[in-house]
Amino acid sequence: MKRLLLVFLLIGPNVFSQDELQEKTFFTEALYYNLDEYNKKADLAYRLNDFDKAKELFENFTSNHLEGAYMDNFKFQNLRKKEVSLYNYENPVFLITYASWCIPSKGEIPALNELAKEYKGKVDFVVLFWDEHKKVKELAEKFSSDISIVYVDERQNNGAYVVRQLKHSLGLPTCFLLSEDKKIMDIRRSVFPPLQTEEETAFRENYIALETSISKNLTNTYEEIYADNVQVE
């Protein structure tokens, strides 16, 4: 033990990386310590119909307490009813949660399909449904084959832990942008254009919002595109 201490003192602490010196904080741990306080404030805001305040609370909670943590290796079922682990996805992951009773915003699915095609091989797009297999299989037909469709059927008491952490903590739909090592880079809500918005306009609004988040948080191309635009101007 004395020899190890002597070696550490001789070579200095800078040899060890910051990651090696600090333990990772995981999503479930961050929820455990911070979720109750957020829920109290958010519930009050919703009771008062103060939706702007509720949005502000969500953004502050996720940016201050959840982003930077690492997503747990949650397990789901795919359309073949085979177990899939989140860590099976080797690329950065764009994960969005849905359910059959939660209608995606207008233009969102076409935007996801287009982006999954453009980022194929670079980002894994995963749609997680809280639903039964039969219903998920029907809903999956709307999505591109470039998107991985998974589900958790809580009515069969499967994946109760996943349901409690991912569904009941933040609600749905919720988007999680995860780096290659599953670090949470961003958490965001869907874009909901007004009902009277034209389909093409709704698609563009969703596409721009999603593409900006992906390029900024998962592919590091946002700054490059911005720099190119500045030079052109």
TrEMBL record:
CDD domains on file: TlpA_like_family
Coiled-coil portions: none
SUPFAM superfamilies assigned to the protein according to its UniProt record, in alphabetical order: Thioredoxin-like
Annotated ranges, domain Thioredoxin: 65-213
GO molecular function, one term: antioxidant activity
Entry protein name: TlpA family protein disulfide reductase
Pfam families given in the database record: AhpC-TSA
PROSITE patterns recorded: THIOREDOXIN_2
